[in-house]
């Protein structure tokens, strides 16, 4: 499980839908972070889009 309290801007997450999103802001509540999609195989139109990401959507941190 990813500790959302420790995520920092610039870190990248792989999501359940195989998209990769970059953290642009940590809300600080341990549940949500603001992300920008940098890869989205299932929906290429999402690349560049920003939205809140819930902790249950993240699979792992890209190392």
Can you walk me through this structure?
- With 63 residues, the protein is mainly β.
- The chain has one domain: SH3 type barrels, CATH 2.30.30.
- 0% of the residues lie in helices and 44% in strands.
- It is built from no helices and five strands.
- It has a five-stranded antiparallel beta sheet, with no helix packed on it.
- The two termini are 15 Å apart.
- The mean pLDDT is 97.
Radius of gyration: 10 Å
Number of helices: 0
Helix content: under 10%
Describe the global form: globular
Number of domains: 1
Percent of sequence in beta strands = 35-45%
Q: From the coordinates shown, what is the CATH architecture? A: Roll
Main sheet overview: 5 strands, antiparallel
Cα-to-Cα separation, first versus last residue: 15 Å
Oligomer: single chain
For the biggest β-sheet, the strand order reads 4-3-2-1-5
Poorly predicted regions are none
CATH class descriptor name: Mainly Beta
How many beta strands in the DSSP annotation? Answer: 5
By CATH, the topology is SH3 type barrels
The class by helix and strand makeup works out as: mainly beta
Mean pLDDT: 97
Give the SSE order as H and E letters: EEEEE
């Amino acid at each position: 499980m990813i500790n959302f309290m420790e995520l920092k801007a610039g870190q990248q997450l792989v999501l359940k839908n195989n998209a990769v999103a970059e953290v642009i802001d940590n809300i600080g509540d341990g549940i949500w972070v603001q992300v920008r999609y940098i890869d989205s195989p299932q929906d290429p139109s999402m690349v560049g889009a920003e939205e809140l990401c819930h902790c249950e959507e993240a699979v792992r941190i890209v190392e």
